[in-house]
Amino acid sequence: MPKRRNKYEIYSELLDTVARKHSCRLTRASYGANLPVDRAKTMLTFLTSRGFISESKVAGSTIYTITKRGLEYLETFKNMRKLFAALDERHGLPQPEAREEPSRVSKIEANLTLMEDHARVDEGFRLGVTVANIGETSVTLKSVEKIVPKNFEVVVMPDNFNLKGDTIFAEDITLDAGTTEEIRLNLRAPYEGTFSIHPRIIALGDNGEEVTFEPSPAIVKVVEADLPRRLSTGYKGLDSLLLGGVPEKYAMILTSPPCDERDLLTLRFLKEGVKQKEITVYFATDTNMMKTLAGEVSSDFYVFICNPQADAMIGNRPNVFKLKGVENLTDINIALTSAFRKMNKKRKAQKRACIGILSDILLEHGAVRTRKWLTGFLSELKSQGFTSMVLLNPQMHPSKEVQAVLDPFEGEIDVYTKQTKEGMQKFLRIRRMFNQRYLENEMPLVKDNLRA
Fold first, then answer.
1. pLDDT > 60? residue 3
2. Which of 79-93, 304-318, 435-449 has the lowest mean pLDDT?
């Protein structure tokens, strides 16, 4: 029978576990001292109250760290054990057999799940990796090797992973015994074929040993794409969610409050039109974007400034139409028709339109009249071969008015803010696309990436 431990020996083992890990959670401490979690918690609370251990909160979890007093206890307890052993030897007493610590095994397993039966060239497909800790100790997830087949692109992956080559590396992911971690990826295949995804998961046990597992491979069949022709938005991340870009002759609305990220997305959309030598139309109430695009504007770039001060804001230039605001919707239609006559004399080309005046029109004319005008305006653009991106600030209007003007659009992109562990951050998500496939993942918007 193993020797029964007294409370001072248990205190020593708890303190030793915390000291060896520098800091640890309750579960790891309970495993290290071979105690039930509830009893370990009671004893850790007692040691904390006596100054042998300190507590801190990290990401909502309680972290235990040994104090100087706790280290002194460990040292004293070890010395006392040596003295007790010496006394037993001097009096010829039989020595108790050394109690062998039960070995606790670190072990993981994993499986792969394909969310689609097949993928198409240049489309994203979803792959799930479930990692389970089936051992007796906690493990730290380090990496998943060979998860990305050669020439495949990672479209979306979790925030707490970094990509390098064909491997994703985890950041501070600890799995307690009996827990799992779900890893969701979106991958995109560059060509047809049948591909085997056979990753290797690597973790570290709580004693530092490497723990690995190779799940059964996932077989993905990639077939030829049947997507309609698409126009790039100018931002690779958004194009990935759209599976290549905005479908030709499609009308998309981008709902976003005023922010740098929205302006940078708009700028990229316009720059891409200029870069691809497309006929590009832009409706705005100011000339800020024109100034940013200075030197890049071509003869196929048409700008409509809807502002009473338009004459003072910009001089007379080819392909610049100045209107006295958004009060007269007929004037906007006439100006567009006039521009069409100039465009139609030129070579055939893809066409894109960016409309930045919808919020102003909705404020001026209300939901009913705006919706009626918008429906006709978008139909006219589509008949002329335009792919449209329209901007709306939903915070400027009652929700019923916002819903009223969303209906005429075939697709909706939303930019929003939410709390993350790094603080408030902007995200983008495709809300809907009529009769089209797209990725539903949210994508963080990083200004430095948008400016690149």
1. no
2. 79-93
Q: What is the pLDDT of residues 304-346, one digit of tens each?
A: 999 998 888 888 888 889 999 999 999 999 999 988 888 866 5
CATH number at residue 387: 3.40.50.300
Whole-angstrom distance, CA of residue 106 vs CA of residue 137? 5
The pLDDT value given to residue 295: 63
Report the run of H or E that residue 12 belongs to, with start and end: helix 7-21
- The parent domain of residue 353 ranges over 230-451
Written in H, E and C, the secondary structure of 98-154 is CCCCCCCCCCEEEEEEECCCCEECCCEEEEEEEEEECCCCCEEEEEEECCCCCCCEE
Backbone angles phi, psi at 337, to 5 degrees: -60, -40
Residue 88, pLDDT > 50, answer yes
* Gap between the Cα atoms of 37 and 67, Å rounded: 22
Assess contact for 419 and 400: CB atoms under 8 A: no
Q: Residue 89 belongs to what H/E stretch?
A: helix 68-90
Alpha carbon distance 99, 340 (integer Å)? 90
Cα–Cα distances (Å) from 323 to 284, 331, 335, 357, 381, in that order, read 10, 7, 8, 12, 19
Clarify whether residues 75 and 114 are in a common domain.
no
Output the pLDDT for position 95. 52
Residue 160 inside a domain? The answer is: yes
Q: Indicate the residue type of 321.
A: F
Distance CA 236, CA 231 (A): 12
Report which of 378, 388, 384, 297 is spatially closest to residue 343, judged by C-alpha positions: 384
pLDDT band of 2, cuts 50, 70, 90 = very low
> What sign results for the dihedral spanned by CA atoms 74, 79, 85, 91?
negative
Please tell me the pTM assigned to this model: 0.56
Rounded to whole angstroms, the Cα distance separating 205 from 179 reads: 14
Regarding whether 211 and 238 lie in a shared domain, the answer is no
Question: H or E stretch including 313?
Answer: helix 310-313
Residue 304 burial by Cβ neighbours in a 10 Å radius (0-12, 13-18, 19+) = buried
Q: What is the CATH number of the domain that holds 23?
A: 1.10.10.10
